[in-house]
Amino acid sequence: MALQTTRTSFTPGEVWPDDQGIHINAHGGGLLCHEGMHYWFGEHKGSGPKGHLAEVGVHVYASRDLYNWKDSGIALQVSLETGHDLESGCVIERPKVIYNRKTRTFIMWFHLELKGKGYDAARTGLAVSDKVAGPYQFVRSVRPNAGVWPVGATEALKHPAASASELAERDAVVAGKYLRRDFPGGQMSRDMTLFVDDDEKAYLLTASENNQTLHLHELTDDYRDFTGRWTRVFAGDSNEAPAVFKKDGKYYMISSDCTGWRPNPARSGVADSIWGPWTALGNPCRGTEKDISTTFESQSTYVLPVPGHPGEFVYMGDRWRPDNASDGRYIWLPIEWEEGKPVLRWYETWDLSQFIPNRLSD
Ligand code: GAL
Question: Of 70, 96, 254, 274, which one has the fewest beta carbons inside 10 Å?
Answer without folding.
Answer: 70
